[in-house]
Amino acid sequence: MSQPAFHIPQAKLPALIQAMPKAELHMHIEGSLEPELIFALAQRNGVALSYPSVEALRAAYAFTDLQSFLDIYYAGASVLLKEQDFHDMAWAYLLKAKEDNVLHTELFFDPQTHTDRGVPFEVVIKGLHSACVRAEAELGVSASLIMCFLRHLSEEAALKTLDESLPYRELFIGVGLDSSERGHPPEKFARVFARCKDLGLHLVAHAGEEGPPEYIVNALDILSVERIDHGVRCVEDPALVERLAKQGTALTVCPLSNIKLCVFKTMAEHNLKTLLAHGLKVTVNSDDPAYFGGYLNQNFLATFADLDLDANDAYTLARNSFEASFVSAERKQAWIAQLDATFARFAGDAA
Length: 351
Ligand code: ADE
Ligand code: ZN
Description:
Layout: H1 13-19, E1 22-28, H2 35-45, H3 54-59, H4 66-76, H5 83-99, E2 102-109, H6 111-115, H7 121-139, E3 142-150, H8 155-165, E4 174-178, H9 190-198, E5 202-207, H10 213-221, E6 227-230, H11 238-247, E7 250-253, H12 255-260, H13 272-277, E8 281-284, H14 289-292, H15 296-306, H16 311-323, H17 329-350
Parallel strand pairs: 1-2, 2-3, 3-4, 4-5, 5-6, 6-7, 7-8
Helix pairs in contact: 1-15, 5-7, 16-17
The chain binds adenine and zinc ion (ZN).
């Protein structure tokens, strides 16, 4: 479908990005744990940290690749023990989402990071779910949960986690695959995803962040995923790019994450504009905002500052975020109507 062309001056982009309604589809809730909250929860729960202060912890956020980040990210999550901790973490993110005009968010959570430390699955999901319910009621922000399997762990461990999750099946909408990508291809989880598909869960997977384009192909063909998380390395396979464009498969791209984890050296070298030029259904997301220097609007602002994007690109990205979300066609239409009204207002002001 062709979209309207907006004549909105570049100077208005920061205000437009702030004001436009949007969805966030790739955000690990454990990656929203700010150092201040890590320290507060450590104190509340009597957990010892290996950093003496908030500043020292933040100073350690200098990553060279995905694994160097994951090591510190899993250590940060060790302060989460009680249902209230999970609620507080999610609530803090949902307040930020509201500030950024996020109308809908689909949150990843990593149960194995917690159950392997002896925290019951029930504690994790109930704390997160109650924050999602509260966000809808108090903030008007719609929030759902996507349970991720840690791909560096075994297929057997993933199947066990799936079994543990079944009593809470109604509290999450889908499953994903995250953690160390290289050496852990999608096919390792073929049987897990087949079971999830039978359960009627939505399916997504991280692929083509650090891993090769074949991982994207296999996530599509073997896991039957509906969206690809990251996917930026698809450009190395022209046939795959053509397929993704033709199928309209969404890529949940995370620009600041890609810079912090050295997938691209600088934002000016990020391939988001190229992906858009190929007609791919690109969305912008924050991944792990507490670790990568910004929530959703910061990701938009940083990307637009360095990639020569305009208001029409902003519209495409926001619209894609709604179209790629796992909600009814009616809800998508209602949110896109709000998006259209915001752009009409900015275009009218500019005329
Ligand atoms: N878990 C949290 N953030 C992640 C990322 N960017 N890639 C893979 N696993 C993750
Ligand atoms: Zn991610």
